[in-house]
Design goal:
about 0% strand, globular, 11 helices, mainly alpha, Glycerol uptake facilitator protein
Length: about 260
Amino acid sequence: MGYYLPSEILESTRLKGIEKANIPFLKLLVLAFMGGVYISLGFLAYIRVVGTMPPELGSLRTFLGACVFPVGLLGVLLAGGELTTSNMMILFVAYIKKSIPARKVLYNWVVVFLGNLIGSLFVAFFLSHYTGISEGDFLQTTLYIAAGKVNQDLLPALVSGIGCNLFVCMAVWMSFGAKDITGKILASWFPIMAFVVVGFQHVVANMFVIPAAMFSGQSPITFLDFIGNIIPVYIGNLLGGAIFFGLMYCIALAPKKEKSTEN
């Protein structure tokens, strides 16, 4: 089970950023839709695991649910998908390395965000609400999770978003460092599991669980509450992925400048 060095991962990330920046619109939107679907399915699996567990289990419930949540990112990385949070880091690295212009970065971020949103809403309404999978015995869990997201104050939600995307980008970065599928699974599984255990906020996951609660008709959450959560969490995810991860590694792994010598 081989692996690449951090400097090699940085170059792979740069090349991946160039590739993503040049994906045609329809293909990009479809892959982003699938990315939203995969993350939402991971969250739906989490709800089904923890939903009927007794509260007395405490943090063990969260841990067991977190063990299945990473299947969403694995779908993005291995089956193929575009994800807003990982692209915040990947495209920004390519931009910092002067490989793509800013307009292509912003274009990708906007299209992928919209595709993720459509995919998440699809799962929230059709695969979750319409089938009743997140309701019935599992409704209280869905409502509790969604309420916890929207009730967090703006600044803590933003900071939580930073923490979340440090974990997500760590998972993607380390998966780029693995040379086989087993390594990619192991490298990405544990950081995602950790961010769920900690309870950080992920904008695409929130695009699923908050509407899932709203569609049930049993939640007081409004559309304005939803938007009021998505904006700070998105900004936090962006800062975490682009600045606190992508930029930091561009600085840390920058080629050393050779000192000039006088003859």
